[in-house]
Amino acid sequence: MKAKEIRELIDFISNSGLDEVNIETQEFKISVKKNKPIVHTIPEAPAVAPAAPRAIEVNPNHGSVPAAAPVQETAAGAIEQNSNYVEIKSPMIGTFYDTPNPDAEPFVKIGDSVKVGQTVCIVEAMKLFNEIESEYSGKIVEILVENASPVEFDQPLFLVDPS
């Protein structure tokens, strides 16, 4: 099996719902496992009014990434947001860049208005720089990812107030 075929297989598995795959033939044996992130709840420092705890996703390979907004755990175990904001999510695994090049200004900043189809960032995947466009019109409320940090498929990148 060639390296390109192995990479394609790993990409396919990472985009599927599978956690582990084992393939064995006469020529080779391959085993692929996903690392599942561990979610911890860490309370924020009290403000004027007590704030809800924020979920922090810890990926052993990438450090800590703060969650999008205050969250609460429901009885079913699902996490729901306490806001009417919409999320612009990463359509792929890669590296997040908020500027087109190191010397340029960011595509968007907090408080900027965005329109549907406007480029808000770049996600680099396998040496390809993919422009990510906003699916919503509104105002950028929060940028959830630091520049040059790794992102996962469907990870929220921005919070947008559509009103």
Strand-helix topology:
Blueprint: H1 3-15, E1 20-24, E2 29-33, E3 38-42, E4 54-59, E5 63-66, E6 71-73, E7 79-81, E8 86-89, E9 94-97, E10 113-114, E11 119-125, E12 128-133, E13 138-143, E14 149-151, E15 156-161
Antiparallel strand pairs: 1-2, 3-4, 4-5, 6-7, 8-15, 9-11, 9-14, 10-13, 11-12, 13-15
Can you give a write-up of this model?
- The chain contains 1 helix and 15 strands.
- It has a 4-stranded antiparallel beta sheet, with no helix packed on it.
- Helix content is 8%, strand content 42%.
- It folds into 3 domains: 31 residues, no CATH class; 47 residues, no CATH class; 80 residues, RNA polymerase II/Efflux pump adaptor protein, barrel-sandwich hybrid domain (OB fold (Dihydrolipoamide Acetyltransferase, E2P)).
- With 163 residues, it is mainly beta.
- The protein is elongated, with a radius of gyration of 18 Å.
- The longest helix is centred in the N-terminal third of the chain and has 13 residues.
- Strand 4 and strand 5 form a beta hairpin.
Brief descriptors of the model:
mainly beta; OB fold (Dihydrolipoamide Acetyltransferase, E2P); 3 domains; four-stranded antiparallel sheet; 1 helix; elongated
Report a brief summary of the structure.
With 163 residues, the chain is mainly β.
Helices and strands, in N-to-C order? HEEEEEEEEEEEEEEE
CATH topological fold name of the largest domain: OB fold (Dihydrolipoamide Acetyltransferase, E2P)
Intertermini distance: 52 Å
Overall structural class, as computed from helix and strand content, comes to: mainly beta
Q: Which architecture of the largest domain would the CATH scheme give at its second level?
A: Beta Barrel
CATH class of the largest domain: Mainly Beta
Strand segment count: 15
Give the fraction of residues assigned to helices: under 10%
What ranges have pLDDT less than 50 throughout 5 or more consecutive residues? 62-80
Strand-residue proportion: 35-45%
The main β sheet shows up as:
4 strands, antiparallel
In DSSP terms (H or I, runs of 4 or more residues), the helix count works out at 1
Q: Work out the count of structural domains.
A: 3
Instruction: State Rg.
Output: 18 Å
Mean pLDDT: 75
Biggest sheet: strands side by side, in what order?
8-15-13-10
CATH superfamily membership of the largest domain:
RNA polymerase II/Efflux pump adaptor protein, barrel-sandwich hybrid domain
